[in-house]
Amino acid sequence: MRELNGAAEARPAIPFATVRARLSISILCTLATALAVAAPALAENGEGLLGETDDRVVTFFAFGVLAFFPLVALIGTVVQGRLDRRKDRRKAAAMREHERAAARS
Question: Is 20 helix (H, G, I), strand (E, B) or coil?
Fold first, then answer.
């Protein structure tokens, strides 16, 4: 039964220094990217990569943002559901195997 609850598959804890180093690298990369992308946006009297920003551009960008987050939630839900079904199938197969082994002995 110990194999069924995931105790055998537990990973060791990550050391705090490793987590701190990864976090520092992530923050530095994020800041560098933000600074690199901000320079073209501030050039040419406020004209960015798409040209002059008007109401139409802002509206379509806002619609894109509004569509992005529900899509991320939907995709995450679908992926989580599939992973849960896979986990349940594996647990059921392990339970059947355990019951067969118990019946043989």
Answer: helix
